[in-house]
Amino acid sequence: MDVNITFLGGSGTVTGSKYLVRHGGKCLLVDCGLFQGYKQLRLRNWQPLPVTPGQIDAVLLTHAHLDHSGYLPLLARDGYTRAIHATPATRDLCAILLPDSGHLQEEDAAFLNRHQLSSHSPALPLYTRLDAVHCMRQFKVHTMNAAFEPLPGWRATFSPAGHILGAASVLLEVGGRRILFSGDLGRPDDLLMNPPDAPPVADTVLIESTYGDRQHPPETLLEELGPALQRLAGRGGVAVVPVFAVGRAQMVLHAIGLLKAQEAVPKSLKVFLDSPMAVSTTGLYQHHLGEHRLNAREVQAMEHGATMVQTPEQSKGLARLHGPMVILAASGMATGGRVLHHLALHAGDHRNMIILTGHQAPGTRGARLADGEKTIRIHGQDVSVSAEVVKLSSASAHADGNQLIAWLRSMGHAPDQVFVVHGEMSAADHLRQRIAHELRWRVSVPEHGSTVAA
Hints:
By secondary structure, the chain is α/β, with parallel strands linked by helices. The protein contains 14 helices and 22 strands. A hairpin with a 2-residue loop joins strand 7 and strand 8. The radius of gyration is 22 Å and the shape is globular. The termini are close together.
């Protein structure tokens, strides 16, 4: 009996990762992500899967980011009742991220209904906060490098992938085939996370390609961030830093702590973390020591290095304070959340600074700021941008093209075939060419919805 893989997401795009593995009348889903970004991709979230949720026998999760986990509440609500297999830290992060995702979808639907902006009456959320809370009961955790059986006769093993807390690559052994899902791979030189483990030997490999067509710059995050904060402190300005609540916020906090310890920036520089989700995530680093580079003392220093802002009232209170200070707030591409209030307040002053901490997807406010636009629209108002915009190019949590090739090369034995997934078309095809030419392995970029023999 053949083993087949159907690509239900994460093919030709960097979002919506879902890989359906079928064998012997059973099917298992690796990752269960939301499509994000362009509208034509987001519409796929509303289309039924080619199997009903009740027909899926198991789910394996590589990590907690919503483009890998964000469809789970919908899957469970629509009839998936079995286990969701994940690492302990992935489960802990999903408990923060998924209910928040449901809450935001309820808010978006309410906004559309209030302003009659939807072609559907009423506009409905994809799923609710309660749907997300309910699906958390189905999580079953497994430690790294310990094999388990998600289904009788199917064997799975998680191994550390770096990237974020709990992120794993998955080796699936079924029907005499060894299939390796890279998940999102971190950088070997990441400031926070340990490097990914070398991959096990496999017959079929699915490799992510988010940064498959580029190389990270030689400068470190400290070398980029230090001079910027030094300039800011010198002119008494306010830095608004849009951050992703999971990973990026903690990396920037740790970097500022190191810069202060090195006296590269003034120790008196005030730092605020204005994101309840980022505050909760920061607390998890203490519970998962050993999965990242920080020891207990360094985690404590990261937590105490900023004033943690929880309530909307505390957030609004920041407007009454004067610089120099740094405000980290979500979202990372300035598409929503508390960061918009801080941008509206501070973008117009030339003494201030907007620090962009990673890739800004086309069409987002962050991308418009990165492109140097002098006005941005926030809450229906045009806001002029006189603040200095600083783009950090060294803060990515993804392996670059060279690091992805090095990871594959360390496998020690060529697989039968490689599928390049989880990347925009240009990035995926660039990595495909490199794997073909440099490693001389059989490789392709799968089409969305296609099925292949594993």
